[in-house]
Write a structure and sequence with these properties.
By secondary structure, the protein is mostly beta strands. The strands form twelve sheets. It has an eleven-stranded mixed β-sheet, with no helix packed on it. β23 (about 240-245) and β24 form a beta hairpin. The N and C termini lie far apart (about 75 Å).
Length: about 600
């Protein structure tokens, strides 16, 4: 059963052409058929009867829990939409919360206690905490319980084992009158629905003060909930509406109207809102659709948004500055979106470049990117920009207006990305792993692996330089398209069972500088550009030979192409077109291997460290 209500947003749009398009909020009934009663267990929740639902909560799996006051029970709606009675025999229950292990805590008011349901054992401890007239309960990110009680009005703070942490955290002497709902933000501040005061009060965890008029001018507010972004949702029960004060806003705005005694609220990780509508005898879920934004160059979009945003430029080159804070995905389907803040998007959501481009103007962690089509990331800062997530089938092209640096410091090897094409600047993999998708390094880009890993095929184009420091490349063979340089620094490349491994004591290098058109390295230290302590230098060239090699305590095995000159040239025949080098640790003088056009070196060369 789905309906629509009017949607309110705080959105500041400067120079936006032509306008924003605000869709209505969609919602559906999750439990209750609209008439009071007690029936339906084992069947569809929307066909069941509940009576005066007061509060709602949800666990990590997606099960929904309802405080069914009229039936003195806790009802559960599982992920298949089937309702059941989880706990019965309560006495005017008023509140519920769920901890990080999916255990339930119930404010059993007229029994003067708090019960705990343990999900692993499916048992209920009715007297987990006794001797308190609990009429609401909340939980913070550390599993600390906050119990709002009456006779007298106060809040006690408890540990997860039921022991008291702070007695009388808030008292009537501080101005508390009748706490009916509690929610705690990420800083430990406690928000309290005070219907007798017509306000949402706030206990400040830093100052230990209680502001009874934090949000005032309300009509019998019986519900409050703070989401992961510290947006504050209010059940303005007497007015039949839900308000939201978004993080950073001065005052709340109306989100939904026309309700019948809304009370308990809950917001999930996708920013969907759940509401116990006690007067209607059902529970609703609200979905927030995306805002469509059409723009031309010069547009500036800022402000919080309940839901996602769809950016559509009038032209591919149009640019919109984006300083918003949406609660869901941002999509760019045409044009360019420029961000000055790095990650304004809610946890679990993405910047989706569906044919559009993203301009980055400041360093830091980039918001997660999703590529259903090829898109472009243009970096306009010299501060490092860290790629944190990359999914989708489209290729991400990275360009830089300045000599920028894009880094990967986390494991992205499980990401289903369509590939990365780095066209300018530097790309460093520092203790991270690239996605399992093609990585292309072009136009003089500096790729460095520092204890990092390239998890896919790697193409190094014109002038590209690859430096490895305790890193590696795994996956398909490296593809050489034209002249490139590979400089090992305590790392290795790997392809299946074939490995190019470097001695662990190779620490220094100076990039090769070709002066005479001949890519060969010389044994003379003054001519090898400082590689007297270097390692093996691989340089793709038209000729195919190994020469000027000075090998100490080692041997060279070769067969298949070109010619070999230098000290200790022992010839063997492992496999056609294969080269095996043993004892490379002892190599001095910058000896080199130069491969001809017919050699695919990532498949055909194995370099082993020296053995005693």
């Amino acid at each position: 059963m789905k309906n629509s209500f009017t949607k309110w947003l705080v959105v500041v749009v400067l120079g936006l052409v032509p306008s924003t398009n605000l869709d209505a909020i969609s919602n559906e009934i999750l439990a209750g058929d609209g008439t009071a009663g007690y029936s339906g267990d084992g069947g569809s929740a929307v066909s069941a009867k509940v009576s005066n639902p007061y509060a709602v909560a949800r666990d990590s799996i997606g099960n929904l829990y309802i405080v069914d006051v009229g039936n003195n029970a806790i009802r559960q709606v599982n992920t298949s939409g089937v309702i059941s009675t989880l706990i019965s025999g309560l006495n005017n229950p008023q509140g519920i919360c769920v901890d990080s292990d999916d255990n339930l805590y119930v404010a059993d008011q007229d029994n003067w206690r708090v019960g705990m349901y343990t999900t692993t054992t499916h048992t209920y401890n009715a007297s987990f905490i006794s001797g308190i007239c609990a009429q609401t309960i909340g939980i913070d990110r550390n599993n600390k319980l906050y119990i709002g009680a009456n006779f007298p009005a106060h809040i006690d703070k408890y540990n997860s084992d039921g022991s008291i942490d702070v007695a009388n955290l808030v008292t009537s002497a501080m101005g508390m009158v009748n706490p009916k709902a509690i929610s705690i933000d990420s800083l430990g501040n406690v928000y309290v629905a005070e219907p007798n005061l017509g306000a949402i009060a706030m206990y400040n965890a830093s100052t230990s003060t209680y502001n009874t008029n934090f949000i005032s001018g309300l009509s019998d507010p019986y519900g409050v909930y703070v989401d992961s972004l510290n947006n504050i949702y209010i059940a303005n029960t007497g007015a039949g509406s839900i308000l939201v004060r978004q993080n950073g806003a001065a005052s709340p705005g109306t989100l939904v109207t026309g309700l019948n005694s809304p009370r308990g609220l809950f917001v999930d990780e996708d920013m969907n809102l759940y509401m116990a509508e006690s007067g209607a005898n059902w529970v609703r879920k609200f979905f927030f659709p995306s805002v469509a934004v059409s723009f031309t160059t010069g547009a500036h979009f800022s402000g919080p948004v309940m839901g996602g945003i769809k950016f559509v430029g009038s032209d591919d080159d149009d640019v919109c500055i984006f300083d918003g804070s949406p609660t869901q995905d941002v999509q760019v389907t045409k044009g360019k979106v420029s961000m000055s803040s790095r990650d304004p998007i809610a946890s679990g959501h993405y910047m989706r470049l569906n044919g559009g481009n993203l301009i980055v103007t400041a360093g830091g962690n980039l918001c997660p990117l999703a590529m259903s089509q090829d898109g472009k990331l243009q970096v306009q800062t010299t501060d490092a920009v860290n790629l944190t997530h990359l999914i989708g089938s489209g290729e991400l092209a990275i360009e830089s207006v300045v000599n920028s640096l894009v880094t990967v410091t986390t494991d992205l090897s499980a990401e289903t990305a369509g590939g990365i094409n780095v066209n300018h600047g530097e790309f460093h993999v520092n203790n991270g792993k690239t996605p399992v998708a093609p990585l292309k390094i072009a136009n003089g880009v500096d790729l460095r692996l520092t204890s990092g890993q390239v998890s896919s095929s790697l193409t190094v184009d014109t002038g590209g330089v690859v430096a490895v420091d305790a890193g590696k490349k795994v996956g398909d063979a490296l593809v050489e398209t034209t002249t490139y340089s590979f400089i090992p620094v305590d790392g290795y490349f790997e392809s299946g069972s074939t490995q190019i491994a470097w001695p662990i004591d190779l620490k220094s290098y100076v990039p090769y500088a070709e002066t005479d058109g001949n890519p060969n390295w010389l044994t003379d230290d003054t001519e090898d550009q400082g590689l007297s302590y270097g390692g093996v230098h691989l340089n793709y060239s038209g000729g195919a030979h190994i020469q000027n090699g000075e090998w100490v305590d080692g041997s060279v095995y070769w067969v298949g192409f070109g010619e070999i000159t230098g000290a200790h040239p022992t010839i063997s025949a492992p496999t056609d077109n294969d080269v095996a080098l043993v004892g490379a640790v002892g190599m001095q003088g910058g000896s080199s291997i130069n491969l001809g056009a017919g050699a695919t070196w990532a498949r055909n060369i194995t370099v082993f460290p020296a053995t005693a």
